[in-house]
Amino acid sequence: MSTETPLAGFPITARWPAQHPDRLQLYSLPTPNGVKVAIMLEECALPYEAHAIDFGADDQHSAAFESLNPNGKIPAILDPDGPGGKPLALFESGAILLYLAEKTGKFLPTDPARRYQTIQWLMFQMGGVGPMFGQVGYFVKFAGKDIEDTRPRDRYVAEAKRLLGVMDRVLDGRAWFMGDDYTIADIATLGWVRGLVNFYEAGDLVAFDRFANVKAWLDRGLARPAVQRGLSIPARP
Predict the structure, then answer these.
(1) Which of 2, 43, 170, 230 has the fewest CB atoms inside 10 Å of its own CB, making it the most exposed?
(2) Taking 60 as the threshold, does the pLDDT of residue 225 lie above it?
(3) What angle do CA 35, 39, 44 make, to 5 degrees?
(4) Distance of alpha carbon 188 from alpha carbon 177, whole angstroms
(5) How far apart are CA 236 and CA 161, in angstroms?
(6) What is the distance between the alpha carbons of residues 154 and 136, in angstroms, rounded to a whole number?
(7) Domains 12-106 and 112-224 share a fold
(8) Which residues share a beta bridge with 48?
(9) Distance separating alpha carbons of residues 167 and 172, to the nearest angstrom
(10) What percent of the chain clears pLDDT 90, i.e. is strictly above it?
(11) 112-224 belongs to CATH 1.10.340.30
């Protein structure tokens, strides 16, 4: 009788062995993108095993990691119990959030109209908030801060302010993007807003205190125990 697990055929498990091969495997780091999936897993209470991808060692560009995600970005997952009971490898944080929401029946409305409205705010984060806030971070905290020409930085700061303004208007009178329903739209966005203010330290630059509804929404999100746990998973190498 074969003793191989459903994950044995995936090369990534040779580099990051699964101690619990019956659990969903998460390959990530607690970056604004990475924490989305960790938070979702904690919110859903799904059994999983987290593997830290060390950017300092260039793990994300290793052959082992790229066998799972050819784009060389975190997060990625390997679910031994995917559709039809077969293993599923998946990358792109938005796709993973949708998959986990549908797998568990949580944090994505079942009403078709509200489902697509939730997905639109998820896409808003994926296409706008993440890329633009990340560019602000590059010019404020990383190599971009040494560029003397301030026009590139100012362009991304202006766009970050615009996006925060959009969020502030939609959150006026709402607890979450979808009103009373906390969804994957919130889970996707929390880490990025927190990162803009706390990690990139760009709060003053984008006048974050002007966006009272966003600030209150962020405080509500950060008060959730699952969010607090997810923000530090996996532990950095």
Answers:
(1) 2
(2) yes
(3) 150
(4) 11
(5) 30
(6) 9
(7) no
(8) 24
(9) 9
(10) 96
(11) no
Strands ordered across the beta sheet of 88-91:
48-52, 24-28, 76-79, 88-91
Confidence of residue 8 (pLDDT cuts 50, 70, 90): confident
How far, in Å, are 5, 12, 24, 179, 202 from residue 41 at the CA level? 22, 20, 9, 22, 28
- In one-letter notation, the amino acid at residue 18 is A
* Sign of the Cα pseudo-torsion (144, 147, 148, 149, in order): negative
Domain ranges of the chain: 12-106, 112-224
Q: Could you tell me where the DSSP H helices lie in the chain?
A: 12-15, 34-44, 63-66, 93-104, 112-124, 130-141, 151-170, 184-194, 212-222, 225-230
pTM comes to: 0.96
Cα distance between residue 97 and residue 38, in whole Å? 10
Collapse the DSSP code of 32 into the 3-class scheme (helix H, G, I; strand E, B; otherwise coil) and give the result: coil
CA distance 156 to 237: 31
Note whether 50 and 37 are within 8 A (CB): no
CB-based contact 107:183 (threshold 8 Å): yes
Strands 76-79 and 88-91: antiparallel
Backbone angles phi and psi of 4, in degrees to 5: -70, 145
Is 124 in contact with 130 (CB distance < 8 Å)? no
DSSP string, 129-159: IHHHHHHHHHHHHSGGGG-S--HHHHHHHHH
